[in-house]
Amino acid sequence: MRASEGDQLVQHGRVVGQHDQVSEIVQVLGPEGSPPYRVRFEDGHEAIMSPGPDCQVRHRETHEQR
After folding, report:
1. Which stretches make up the DUF1918 domain (predicted)?
2. How far is CA 42 from CA 25, 26, 45, in A?
3. Residue 7 neighbours by CB distance under 10 Å
4. Among 6, 34, 49, 56, which one is most buried in terms of CB atoms within 10 A?
5. pLDDT (tens digit, 9 = 90+) per residue, 1-14?
6. Nearest to 57 by CA among 14, 15, 6
7. pLDDT over 90 at 33, yes or no
């Protein structure tokens, strides 16, 4: 998994009815775009995440076109 600042990290819901959780990557802490990432959630809080297999990176170019 590779990401850059400004990309979105999408954590897919694992239970029926649970929504995806979308956050913005504000800092890449690993080498060459690899995890862990400092992310900011829609409510403003920040966390350090090492994404698992239920996560997807939406690159900045992709989500700006929507």
Report:
1. 1-57
2. 12, 12, 8
3. 23
4. 49
5. 899 999 999 999 87
6. 6
7. yes
